[in-house]
Amino acid sequence: MWGMNTRSRAQRTLTPEYRRLQRRMAAIGYLTQGSVFQRRPSQQGSRYVWTRKVRAKTVTVALSKEQYQWLRRAVANQRELESLVARMQKLSRRILFETVPGVRRRKSLSKKVLGLI
What we know:
It is a single chain. The protein has helices spanning about 10-25, 65-100, 110-115; strands at about 35-40, 50-55, 55-65. The protein has about 120 residues and is α+β, with helices and mostly antiparallel strands.
């Protein structure tokens, strides 16, 4: 691992952001995949619905109002988690390729190749 004296400027700059993302991730509550929605009163079927994919098939579940509200928050938490993980992956790759010695290349790797954009 790196010592404090050998840490690069990029790592010192990016590591606090990574730690901030970790703290946000730790604060996320319950999670679930899928979508929840509320039908208009004039529509046929249950008023509150949760849908998700199971083995490439859509599964639909009727919900109570309380279940709808709970699952709505869990779905939002899931989406936030996925966003945080994607940002942490990009930061991890950036720190890796900017601080850890690698193979010599004639041409530097693009941000697209590294998955930074």
